[in-house]
Amino acid sequence: MTAPTMPARPGEDARLRPLPLRRMAWADWRQHRAALGAVAAFLGAFTVYLWLTGLQMHHAEATYCHPASSIACSINFTGKYGETVIVVSIALQAVPALIGAFTGAPLLGRELETGTYQYAWTQGIGRLRWTVGKLVPLAVAVTAAAGAFTVLLSWYNQPFVAAGYVTLFSPRVFGLLGVAFAAWTLAAFAIGVLAGMVIRRAVPAIAATLAVYAGLAFTTGLWLREHYITPLVTSNPNLPGSAWVISGWYTKGGAFAFGDSYSGLASAVTRLCGAGGGSVVHVHGGVEHVLDVSQCLAQHGYTQWTSYQPASRFWPFQWIEGGWLLALSILLLAATIWLVRRRAT
Amino acid sequence: MNVNVIEASRLGKRYGRTWALRECTVAVPAGHVTALVGPNGAGKTTLLNLAAGLASPSAGAVSVLGGLAAGSRAALDGIAFVAQDTPVYKNLSAADMLHLTATLNRRFDKPYARARLAELGIPLDRRAGKLSGGQRAQLALTVALARRPTLLILDEPVSMLDPIARHDFMATVMIAAAADGVSVVLSSHVLSDLERVADYLILLSRGQVQVAGQVDDVLASHRMLTGPAAEAGTYTQRPVVSARRGAAQAHLLVRATAGDPVPPGWEAHPVGLEELALAYLREPGAAALPGPARSRQAEPSEVIR
């Protein structure tokens, strides 16, 4: 029998050094430059629009909004741009999801869909290094792009924050500022990569990524975020406008009386202050006094309590949100790599 | 030196509740072009995926290149695998496919690959998605051979190709095997694809090896006996693989050499590879391992440790 020389021996595996990860650089660039280019074009288009409208807004705010309570400000600034900025900021909420879904989900999903993983995973570099060499640089790239874009976003939102039109904690704004935007982009990418690996097809994986992302973002904005740090509680009814009010309730004689939900408040006000609703007329010594609800309730011995997050907690909140999103992303990417390693075709 | 490029021992692979391969014990010796033949669903692709390290066994073990764990670093280094339908990145040009493969491996013979593509008339700047099926298969094969592997595994490489492309593809495989001493394993459900190329045959049916051995040995140890149909049941001298009875005549494929006696009234003919394979595939219970029963050994003595 012909006996060709066999270069590989059992002990040779240890002597064969792994190929360096930088070998993946060319593959990453060549195979994903189109996707990265699309991300750049997408963010670039947003940049042009935000830059042009942002300049006008900055100018209007600087011209009319000192003081911010002036009528000129509400006509020429908040009135003129308020609706636009709401629409734009809602549209921007989708940007991390779109970037993550369209770069992350096809990464493995398309390989598995078209069968090219059978090529990729049988090359000398090995599937583990191939996967790490793809996931990590692309994750860094999309996160960095999103991070750079955040600089523009905070500049864009700045006049509205300055004019007190919106608080930093507003669900519309919080995710566009600080580290949150980049962290959400990374999370969307990680969700997409895992979805592609599990679903094995690019387009369904994109759809699944968008759905999962939306669920996570809504859960966080509506329920999770306010619990990052225990809210402060105050009986001072005059909170600064920048504070994020979480909830309110009333006590009498040290005991809980009722919450500030509409039904609880309305019945108490009707009972104690008459049917007037929002404000009540109190006749005292022939003089009519217009009392608002809280004054009326205070007169009857009720204390109003408010739990809130002060504006000074914006950055701690950003780091908390960025931190758990980073941890989640690393977990999802690690799970993907684990699945690639053990995947049985 | 006598080593096996693939050696499976009671190898099994389960997908969910279905066993794609079960209790498969087989050895593919080095230095051959081995045809792995079997009907659809016999477990050919599963066996090759396990050997290439793409899948991991549910039971048993598979080693490659003389005792390396399938999928290990050295195994990946020494094996080039071309999967069914010869997948390549459709949006990459031929030149990009070469460069990509060069970056992902320790060795890559770019001059060889360029010369071969030029010979085949495949433009380097043409995107793989724009190539014909035959050209795409040739590109995948060229990329695999330029890795200078010890073992080349081809899973159903020509099933989607027209006859000319099929012939050209096989010619490339032949040249590589002859000139560079690459061990080759090809699978097909059509033996005629491989008949002129392979010098070692493994017949796989429902995950079980029915026949394994050098083509010449296999052919030399089988005879087709033709005689009166009435006497077909009385032949017991040698094991009968399959019997085909007509109105007057019966054809028995028996395990016998040219020297074995032929009963009076019967004629013995040499048998063709395709005929032999068909006879075995029709009788999944029949097994002949003329090799001699190499893969049935509990202790795989050929592995160099």
Detailed description of the structure:
The complex is a heterodimer of chains A (345) and B (305). Chain A has helices at 12-15, 24-64, 71-114, 117-120, 127-162, 171-174, 180-199, 202-224, 262-273, 293-299, 314-342, and strands spanning 232-234, 244-252, 255-259, 279-284, 287-292, 302-309. With 345 residues, chain A is an alpha+beta fold. In chain A, strands 1-6-2-3 form a four-stranded antiparallel sheet. A two-stranded antiparallel ribbon of chain A has the order 4-5. In chain A, strand 2 (244-252) and strand 3 (255-259) form a beta hairpin. The radius of gyration of chain A is 28 Å and the shape is elongated. Chain B contains eight helices and 14 strands. Chain B has helices spanning 44-52, 73-78, 94-103, 110-120, 133-145, 163-180, 215-220, 273-282; strands spanning 4-15, 18-29, 33-37, 59-64, 68-69, 79-82, 151-154, 183-188, 200-205, 208-214, 222-228, 240-245, 249-255, 267-270. In chain B, helix 4 (110-120) runs antiparallel to helix 5 (133-145) and helix 5 (133-145) packs parallel to helix 6 (163-180). The longest helix of chain B has 18 residues, at 163-180. The radius of gyration of chain B is 21 Å and the shape is elongated. Chain B starts with a strand and ends in a 23-residue tail after the last helix. The chains are: A alpha+beta (345), B alpha/beta (305). At the A-B interface, helix 2 and helix 4 of A face strand 5, helix 2, strand 6 and helix 3 of B.
Strand fraction of chain B equals 25-35%
* Helical coverage of chain B, percent range: 25-40%
Mean pLDDT of chain A: 87
Write down the overall geometry of chain A. elongated
The CATH topology of the largest domain in chain B is: Rossmann fold
Number of domains of chain B: 2
- Examine the secondary-structure arrangement and name the CATH architecture of the largest domain in chain B: 3-Layer(aba) Sandwich
The CATH class of the largest domain in chain B is: Alpha Beta
Strand order across the largest sheet of chain B: 6-7-8-3-9-10
CATH superfamily descriptor of the largest domain in chain B: P-loop containing nucleotide triphosphate hydrolases
Main sheet overview of chain A? 4 strands, antiparallel
